[in-house]
Amino acid sequence: MEIKNLVQLSELAEKDGLSLGRAAIRLEAAEQQVTEEEIERELIRRAEIMKRSVATGLEGMKTASGLVGDQGRRMRGYLGQTKCLASPLYAKAMAYALAANECNAGMGVIVAAPTAGASGVLPALVCAMEEEMSVTGTKLAEALAAAGAVGAVIARNASLSGAEGGCQAECGSAAAMAAAAAVEMLGGSREQALQAAAMALQGMLGLVCDPVAGLVEIPCVHRNAGAVTQALMAADMAMAGVTFAIPVDEVIEVMGKIGRVLPVALRETALGGLAASPTGRAIAERVLGKDSQC
Amino acid sequence: MTLFDIIGPVMIGPSSSHTAGAVRLGLMARNVLGCQPEKADIYLHGSFRCTYRGHGTDRALVGGLLGYPTDDTRIRDSFRHAADSNLQYRFIPADLGDVHPNTVKFELTGQGRQCTVVGCSVGGGAVEVTNINGYKVKLTGELPALVVPHIDRAGYIAKVSGILGAEEINIAAMHVGRNQRGGTALMIIETDQMIDSVLLQVIDRIPGVSGSFVIAPL
């Protein structure tokens, strides 16, 4: 069956006493006529590919602009420094989000979760939570399933595409997905997972998609790091009992509506925002050469 | 939509539309030709024309022509692999008219065959082939497609669908077009089951039909 919104999924899960992620796995297994273990195995396989994308990015990547490729490595080198403001988990998540999205920029293998442009967020969460909170196996699969369910509802009721909805639809959606996943990993309630998704997404509302030279590099790589910290903040707040008045399903619809009124120049066309800044234009001319007149 | 469309696809970066979609378009064109191409003229339109180098669209298209799936790391070095596989290619910036911004046209030759394929990358790695050998089509690569060129005369649809029905092959979608009344027509049938070479020969032996082929799904 198709899930119309997250409240519906939460009610379904409640009936059987399941977490959001487990309910999503059960639905997927029924849909594909396979066992829940098979769905889990495939989710864990994809988590492994996510982890490899982080590791690959940390080795350093060659990208089209040459202006990103070692940002994740730089951030990881800062871990453990006494002046580092973030906790080890937050700092790792930042480093890993930069790295995984640099892996994408450098034509490495990634999991587009939900998109290539936002492919650093969930891998960063997965790696940081595994290393710092020992989250593995079934719990990891359930967390990714919860993330997938949030993403599927966003795809249905708003958009996951930067060309349609700006960066809020890509990195914003990834942040909402990662926030729900983090709560699932921490053993929070269904309601806390939905609250976390709502808080993460509201914090990304209105974010435009303005890629310099049209490349998935600047600001995408840094936005991925911002998105994963937004997700962690939202998960922390939800676990602390902080509540957000607007329900997640409404926040999702709002994101879609904002996306539809964003000017085309701010929806992946590289005609506005940072792409249209003097430095952004200069980079475009250098990278694309005469083709930049397109 | 499944969970794995959201937690996926697994692909080579950096762009689902400009990289993963481009690989799939190359694969579709290769499947239309039915063999490894030896020569490929690749016309790039719109956003593909403007940003193909930065997104690796060029390497992705060639990777697809070489038969690589979207997560194959050889895509990065597809130009070198093309040379090893005797595939000559060139990219030609073009205005293909009032079409989707991410549109590409392939002119392929190989093993004595040739074909022209136009397709576009519509987002998230999904693609649509819009024209084959001058005939308008709409194929997504999700299902096998039987292509039957025939004389534009009454009864051909019944003959072909009768043969398919007798073999328990279900038709999922069908498209029929012609260049002019009484001229040549093209029937494209997407099926739930694969069509083997024996059945293809049976169809191709219908008087007035010639040059039928099957496009394998992605």
Key structural traits:
A: 294 residues; mainly alpha; 64% helix; 1% strand; B: 218 residues; alpha+beta; 2 domains; 7 helices; 11 strands; globular
Can you tell me the residue ranges of chain B where pLDDT is under 50 for at least 5 consecutive residues?
none
Strand content of chain B: 25-35%
Based on secondary structure, the structural category of chain B is alpha+beta
Mean pLDDT metric of chain B: 94
Number of helices of chain B: 7
Name given to the CATH architecture of the largest domain in chain B: 2-Layer Sandwich
**Weakly predicted, low-confidence segments of chain A:** none
Q: What share of the residues of chain B lie within helices?
A: 25-40%
Oligomer: heterodimer
Instruction: Give the CATH topology of the largest domain in chain B.
Output: 60s Ribosomal Protein L30, Chain: A
Number of helices, where a helix is a run of at least 4 consecutive DSSP H or I residues of chain A: 13
Through-space gap between termini of chain B: 17 Å
SSE-based structural type of chain A: mainly alpha
Total number of strands of chain A: 1
Question: Which secondary structure elements does this structure contain, and how are they paired or packed?
Answer:
The complex is a heterodimer of chains A (294) and B (218).
Chain A: H1 6-16, H2 20-32, H3 36-58, H4 71-77, H5 88-105, E1 109-111, H6 121-133, H7 137-157, H8 162-165, H9 167-185, H10 190-202, H11 220-239, H12 248-261, H13 278-288
Helix pairs in contact in A: 1-2, 2-3, 2-7, 3-5, 3-6, 3-7, 4-5, 5-6, 5-11, 6-9, 6-11, 7-9, 9-10, 9-11, 10-11, 10-12
Chain B: H1 3-6, E1 10-12, H2 16-33, E2 39-45, H3 46-51, H4 57-65, H5 78-84, E3 88-93, E4 102-110, E5 113-123, E6 126-132, E7 135-139, E8 145-151, H6 156-166, E9 171-178, E10 184-191, H7 197-204, E11 213-215
Parallel strand pairs in B: 2-3
Antiparallel strand pairs in B: 2-4, 4-5, 5-6, 6-7, 8-10, 8-11, 9-10
Helix pairs in contact in B: 2-4, 4-5
